[in-house]
Specification:
Radius of gyration: 42 Å
Strand order of the largest sheet: 1-4
Structural class: mainly alpha
Largest sheet: 2 strands, parallel
Shape: extended
Distance between the termini: 84 Å
Helix content: 55-70%
Number of strands: 6
């Protein structure tokens, strides 16, 4: 009953905190009953202990594969010593989910640092204390200091609200401390009088907000409201038009030290500054698609942040004064205009660019305006305006003078030493505002336009002669190395490496049908086999498994389960600008088809040894076995034809791709060549969506190999009727005729020549 009452109280608190419904509401009782019923329901799934054991077994096996037998032995021995409770699988499952590459991050030496927690010493008893120091003195009870919870508390209770908090000098246990009394010692009461003037001013402004009467306020209040408005914050004196972000004055304000006309003029001038700053903030919030405009936005944002920090320093002068200042909103207006003058000029430039006609407008019109303003600001020596505008101008010029993709490709594709790289970066450094300012300080009479032209001309002269040629050569070299690598990884250019990967995979699927899809082990297997091919970077190979419950997929044929395996190869960034993708989905699908063909052939190989065990002469074989042997021969012929088609297609299209890439001019031309190659490869290997019926028919032929392999042992023992084999033979003939006719129709419609050759090869067998 106590447990049920506890659940009821906790449920009521949970419902109240989530829904906010009071306990006397009519819905509260029904919600509580439903929640309690769900909490008491024990039909929720628990962690499967057998699955946890299998995962630990797989982890131990993984340690052995990665040559970390020490970790595997240590883990296995400690699992045996672990106490078995009903919560043990839950704890172990949590540890497995938290595990991250344990074979790299774990050290066997760390186990030696694990020590059992020391047993705390036993607390002394009163008998031991009295035995050491007997309480026999006469005056031992004459001076007693009573603690917070002594027996005297039962007689009289002190009123803590009327007394000063004190701290007990007696050592008490944690459970006997007066936490409320101790907390009072650390509470600091804020001085409410510090904000009284601000609160009174706010109340007065809000009270007369809708009135037409003249409101008298202090200059400090006007300064506070003006600086808040300049930060873009809502105020009582100023209002904001949501359409154009224009700042207006909502109240008639005056002060005791200035006339209403002066106050109004100052407020109008401050509102105009706020309007200009808000227009810049609105432009900064717009998303720019061009790179040079993004750089200009970033530079303007830095200048705006610097201006906001100047306003903050102005606020700190009056909020935390270190010296005596004369509070004057006129002086504040003068300082605000001086600080915001460059930003106001930038707002005019941005507005001029935005108001220009869209038709025929140059995308670099804003840079032209910034360039003209920088030259104008430099002539009279306006350093503040020149510093802001010139910095924004040079920030916009830096994308243009990095040679775009050519510079990026050259930097990533070229194999240089650290010294050469540092030297090239130093030689090709883009002139920035600091270098321009340094030149102007040493030679102040040099006009900005001449200095900028001379600097950029010298810089371009060191960059142009070598960049274009090296980019074309290096990019082509990177593309050819990528094409060579994907041929080995995906298309089985080296059959021995493909077999080295496929055979352990097929054996693992047979031995561990529910846990074979460990992507870490499969990635390690692919890197140690396919990754050893010439020109292949093993670290770029990764094996992924598509989402889905393995328990559902284990009921499917093994050939269909191979569709879940996705082999990928990381493409370098420069090459991605040609392939237009980080991965190669067509090559991944081609590898899946090739792996399914290899698995079908793998299933039909053991029957050869069974045939050798039989007596010589096919006439002595049973009728069903004779039909199975004939079907096996035709299936092997079909698999060999399909494998030859894949190899021929890969070699032919790969050679054509290399020739076309070498003759392509520029990155865009290379991208078109790759896109055409990807389309031809997808069509030739029957991976296009329009060829799905033929692709499914071939998948049915591959599943027929698996069905024959499963029925072979029964046929050897005479436990399978010949009619079953006859049905398989009929399915083979029908599917072969459909595939042959489909390929013939595709070739007539302008398909690839390789498909026509495959159709002719299959049609010769049908005929």
């Amino acid at each position: 009953m106590a447990h049920a009452a506890t659940i009821g109280e906790l449920t009521e608190g949970l419902i109240g905190s989530i829904t906010g419904i009071p306990r006397d509401h009519s819905l509260f009782g029904s919600l509580k009953d439903r929640a309690v019923k769900q909490l008491k329901d024990s039909s929720r799934g628990r962690t499967n202990p057998f699955e946890v054991n299998e995962r630990f077994a797989g982890l131990i096996e993984k340690f052995g594969v990665l040559n970390r037998d020490d970790l595997g032995e240590a883990l296995e021995s400690r699992l045996d010593l672990l106490p078995k409770t009903k919560w043990t699988p839950e704890f172990l499952s949590l540890l497995l989910q938290l595990t991250d590459r344990a074979w790299e991050h774990s050290r066997i030496e760390d186990l030696g640092q694990l020590k059992r927690s020391p047993i705390p010493p036993a607390e002394p008893t009163w008998q031991e204390i009295v035995a050491d120091d007997p309480l026999t003195e006469d005056d031992i009870w004459n001076d007693v200091e009573r603690g917070y919870h002594s027996s005297g508390d039962d007689v009289a209770v002190d009123d803590d609200s009327n007394s000063e908090p004190t701290t007990s000098t007696q050592a008490t246990s944690c459970n006997e401390e007066d936490f409320a009394g101790l907390a009072r010692l650390h509470i600091v009461q804020p001085d409410a009088t510090l904000l009284s003037e601000v609160q009174s001013a706010r109340q007065a402004l809000s009270k007369y907000g809708t009135s037409n009467r003249m409101d008298v306020q202090s200059e400090l209040t006007i300064i506070r409201e003006a600086l808040s408005m300049l930060h873009g914050l809502p105020t009582y004196i100023f209002d904001l038009d949501p359409l154009n972000n224009a700042v207006g004055i909502t109240q008639r304000i005056t002060t005791a030290t200035a006339s209403s006309i002066v106050v109004h003029d100052v407020l109008v001038q401050l509102a105009e500054v706020g309007t200009r700053l808000n227009s810049v903030r609105q432009w900064l919030c717009r998303k720019q698609s061009r790179a040079h405009l993004q750089s200009v936005q970033a530079a303007v944002q830095q200048s705006m942040t610097l201006l906001d920090s100047q306003f903050v320093e102005l606020e700190r002068r009056y909020a935390q004064p270190h010296y005596d200042y004369v509070v004057s909103f006129v002086d504040v207006r003068r300082e605000v205009e001086a600080s915001a003058r460059p930003m106001i000029r930038l707002s005019d430039i941005i507005a001029s660019d935005a108001s220009a006609s869209v038709v025929g407008r140059s995308p670099f019109a804003l840079l032209d305006l910034l360039y003209e303003e920088s030259c104008v600001a430099q002539l009279p020596g306006d350093e503040d305006l020149f510093a802001v505008v010139a910095r924004v101008l040079l920030a916009g010029l830096q994308r243009f003078y990095r040679m775009g993709k050519s510079r990026a490709f050259t930097k990533l594709l070229r194999q240089q030493s650290e010294d050469e790289t540092a030297k090239s970066i130093g030689d090709l450094a883009m002139p920035d505002f600091t270098s321009i300012t340094r030149y102007l300080e040493s030679s102040p009479l040099i006009p900005l336009d001449e200095l900028l032209h001379a600097t950029l001309t010298d810089w371009m002269a060191t960059l142009i002669p070598t960049t274009d040629l090296s980019m074309q050569t290096l990019l082509l070299d990177g593309l050819l190395r990528t094409v060579n690598a994907v041929d080995y990884v995906f298309l089985g250019r080296d059959g021995t490496l493909l077999q080295a990967f496929a055979e352990p995979l097929f054996d693992r699927m047979r031995r561990l049908p529910e846990t074979w899809d460990d992507r870490f082990l499969l990635t390690r297997l692919a890197q140690s086999t396919l990754g050893t091919a010439p020109g292949v970077d093993a670290h770029c190979i990764n094996v992924g498994i598509t989402n889905g419950s393995n328990k559902v997929f284990t009921r499917r044929p093994f050939i269909r389960q191979l569709d879940r395996l996705e082999l990928t190869y990381a493409i370098p960034w420069p090459v991605q600008n040609v392939t237009r993708s980080k991965v190669l989905p067509t090559y991944t699908a081609a590898f899946s088809l090739l792996l399914q063909v290899e698995f079908a052939a793998h299933l039909l190989r053991p029957q050869l040894f069974d045939i050798r065990k039989l007596e010589t002469g096919c006439r002595r074989l049973a009728r069903g076995l004779q039909m199975a042997l004939s079907l096996r021969t035709r299936l092997l012929w079909f698999l060999g034809t399909l494998r030859a088609h894949i190899a021929t297609t890969a070699a032919t299209l790969g050679h054509d791709l290399r020739v076309r890439l070498q003759s392509a001019e520029g990155v865009d031309a290379m991208g078109e060549v790759w896109a055409n190659h990807d389309k031809r490869l997808k069509s030739s290997l029957l991976l296009s969506p329009s060829l799905t019926p033929i692709r499914n028919a071939i998948a049915g032929m591959l599943q027929l190999c698996e069905s024959l392999a499963e029925a072979w042992s029964l046929l050897m023992n005479g436990a399978r009727s010949p009619e079953a084999v006859m049905g398989m033979s009929e399915d083979f003939n029908k599917t072969l005729s459909f595939v042959s006719a489909g390929l013939r129709e595709v070739s007539r419609a302008g398909g690839e020549a390789m498909l026509e050759a495959l159709g002719e090869s299959l049609r010769s067998s049908v005929g």
